[in-house]
Amino acid sequence: MRSIYQPSVRHRTQSGFTLIELMITVAIIGILAALAYPAYTDSVRKGKRAEARAALMNLLQQQERYLTQMNTYVVFAAGAADTAFKTYSSSDGTSAQSSHLLGARKCQKIGSDTPSEKDCIEVFAVPQAGVFSDPQVTSMAIDTQGRRTCTGTQIDRCWK
């Protein structure tokens, strides 16, 4: 015989999450990540381009200073190690993790004149292979005459 005071069915309180609740949470996190990741990578690229622009302006100033002392500019390949100039864009003091390598070359032909290293120099930055990839801006350059050039699929983003 059962007592009047004892319930026939015991009620247990539910604790934890159901599988469907966990799946919905994972789906929401996945959607948010899919929306946020492209914006994050674009922001990183913008930051690396800004770092390269600052390094180009610094290199151009170094070239101008060298011109006043030696009466000529210095031409060197991107990332060359045997130059007195900083040839990378990172601020940590090494080129190993630098996003861009810097170089200097004679200016492009202007009309029918081909300038020499004493007349005009163009400093340029290219992304360092294996460290940084930027399909939108593949190179940027500025010369001592103030002309800016850029290559890539979205060159309007180069100097902004």
Automatic annotation (TrEMBL):
InterPro entries: N_methyl_site, PilE-like, Pilin-like, T2SS_protein-GspH
Subcellular location: Membrane
One Gene Ontology biological process: type IV pilus assembly
Its membrane topology: Single-pass membrane protein
Gene3D superfamilies: Glycoprotein, Type 4 Pilin (3.30.700.10)
Keyword Transmembrane belongs to the record: yes
Origin superkingdom: Bacteria
Keywords: Membrane, Methylation, Transmembrane, Transmembrane helix
GO CC aspect terms: membrane; type II protein secretion system complex
Coiled-coil intervals: none
Transmembrane segments: 20-40
NCBIfam families associated with the record: IV_pilin_GFxxxE
Protein name: Methylation
UniProt source species: Albidiferax ferrireducens (strain ATCC BAA-621 / DSM 15236 / T118)
Taxonomy of the source species: Bacteria, Pseudomonadati, Pseudomonadota, Betaproteobacteria, Burkholderiales
